[in-house]
């Protein structure tokens, strides 16, 4: 081996030793600790929620129908209005009903006059009969006329009252407080007593939700309530 080769070998050996020393002396890189979030677990009451399809219902929910027949001449509300008991909703044409009242009133006056005359005749006949001044037949005739005119007066008064009631029925009023829906008829329509549907009225106070709970949910509610897992005291 010549001198050049020896020097080259010594130089490579020195470089190898220097590199090995540097690797041994290099400090180890340290890993920093990672920050983490922590949470404390604790027992807590949570609200129970059950959702079911429901239908709102009311104790008072009716479709109004007229009590007399006739032509609608006025509508006094809008759909969705809150109305009060006794508030007028529709008016039926009143002319013929007013005429009926006037006619019944005239008949009642006539019946009253006939009764007054028959009453006077009967009292007179009774006095004369007790004195023996008239026959039994004449007395019986006066009594029969008195009873007939009395019955006629009662009937005439009833007819007058019915005519007045029918006239009052031409103003169709709300039977209770509530909200009205859409009118089911129009002005000018002829409506029939007790058959034509006019409008729906619903009382909103109180109002209820009508819904169905499944048998599975019912069983879970009963079981968990009895076990003390669920508290329904505030529900």
Structural summary, described in words:
The chain has 235 residues and is of the alpha+beta class. Among the domains are: 60-93 and 172-222, OB fold (Dihydrolipoamide Acetyltransferase, E2P), CATH 2.40.50.100; 94-169, Helix hairpin bin (Helix Hairpins). 45% of the residues lie in helices and 17% in strands. The protein is built from 4 helices and 10 strands, in the order H-E-E-E-E-E-H-H-E-E-E-E-E-H. It has helices at 3-25, 95-130, 136-169, 215-226, and strands at 54-58, 61-64, 70-75, 82-83, 88-92, 171-173, 178-180, 190-191, 199-202, 207-211. The chain has a 4-stranded antiparallel beta sheet, with no helix packed on it. Strands 6-5-3-8 form a 4-stranded antiparallel beta sheet. A two-stranded antiparallel ribbon has the order 1-10. Helix 2 runs antiparallel to helix 3 (136-169). The longest helix has 36 residues, at 95-130. The protein is elongated. The mean pLDDT is 87. This is Efflux RND transporter periplasmic adaptor subunit. Pfam families: BSH_RND (PF25917), HH_MFP_RND (PF25876). Belongs to the membrane fusion protein (MFP) (TC 8.A.1) family. Residues 62-197 form the Multidrug resistance protein MdtA-like barrel-sandwich hybrid domain.
Could you give the topology of this structure?
Blueprint: H1 3-25, E1 54-58, E2 61-64, E3 70-75, E4 82-83, E5 88-92, H2 95-130, H3 136-169, E6 171-173, E7 178-180, E8 190-191, E9 199-202, E10 207-211, H4 215-226
Antiparallel strand pairs: 1-10, 2-9, 3-5, 3-8, 4-7, 5-6, 7-9
Helix pairs in contact: 2-3
Domain Multidrug resistance protein MdtA-like alpha-helical hairpin: 102-170
GO molecular function: efflux transmembrane transporter activity
Pfam families: BSH_RND, HH_MFP_RND
